Amino acid sequence: MRNFFFKALKATAKAIIFYVVYLFLWNILAPISQLVPGFQQMVETFVVVYITLMIIGDLASGTIFQYFFNVAKVLFVMGYLIISSGGGIFGITFENINLMVDLRFFFAIAMLLSLLGLGKSVLQAVNYMNEKAEYGRS
Amino acid sequence: MRVPIRMIGIATTFFWIFLIAFLVTAVYSTKDVAFNFGEPQMNTNASGEIVFSLPISVANRGFYDIGAFAIMTEVFDNHDASIVRGSTLVPVIKKNDEVTVVHNMTFDMNDLLQRSENFLFNDSELKIYAAVGMRIAEVIPVEASSNFSMPWGAPLYNFTLGDPAYAPYNLTHWRATVPLSFENHAFFDLIGNVQIQMYNDAGTLVGEGQTSVEAYANSSYSGFIELYVSIVEVTSSGWFEVYFSTSIFNYGPLVISYG
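YS: structure for the whole thing
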């Protein structure tokens, strides 16, 4: 019970830090939400799901499920980037002006980093099972 | 295996922080980039071409350089056929730097008249596509584009020749006076010569004459052309062939019947 309490405390602290960072970044990006309809909702949905997966992953730490949630978190980031970005090119129309922002370069790097994170989670899961098997034998 | 995994984690976190910080600061710094569009000007150059000039000033007070700042404009007629296209490129605008460029578009009025003589005699609308592109922090391509229309004023709007009035000149010829009027709706002054050739109903050239015209932009012009015609060849009806020779364009013949 005490162990779970510390896990919950750690998860809450991480979530609060993550949310504070989000609020700080959002203050900088806020002007974009006035130009891009639905941008705020898109970012908020991402943050809510990401924090939820982060908390569940932390609560499940010390078990194999922690790595499942880590993989789920990485897959969610990749999926969200692919679906929400529409290929990395954002286009908006404001009155008679069409604005196009090409973020494909950034999304390519983000996808590579996500793949690296996915690989790390798989390696952690393999290592966890390996250590568990070794401790079980000894 | 724990150490390599930890190193992967540290490296991934570092790159994520770097990527997000760079993206956010790059987007944030765009608010410190100021664009000033000057008064557009239309002039004619030495070879009689029309030059459209738009001075643009870009002040980059952001965190990063701006790369490949480009302006592209294209003018279309009312059938969506391209008339003229112009582009201006500034390879790099350094941070804390201000650059002023003049975007020019040059077109020949004679080329325009080859498409349609309506540009000479009828007011119309020209469609303009304008695009401004740049690379924020030299890696994020951004492009803003717009379509709008611009009125085209005909330089010879409502061009008319009146019926010739005859007066005796000598035993073989009459002096014919032909009234001439039009409105110059164009943005440029029309300075040049108008030459007319008068044909009778049998198609015989009976006389020709010319006059110089000077019609300022957005003004009306009325005058007359004198020509000497053979008494025996002149008929009550026929046609005029009109030739225009100005500093901006040459055009003719414009056929106008009389009588």
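YS: worth flagging: Chain A has a mean pLDDT of 85.
IM: good catch. Also The first strand of chain A starts at residue 89 and ends at 94.
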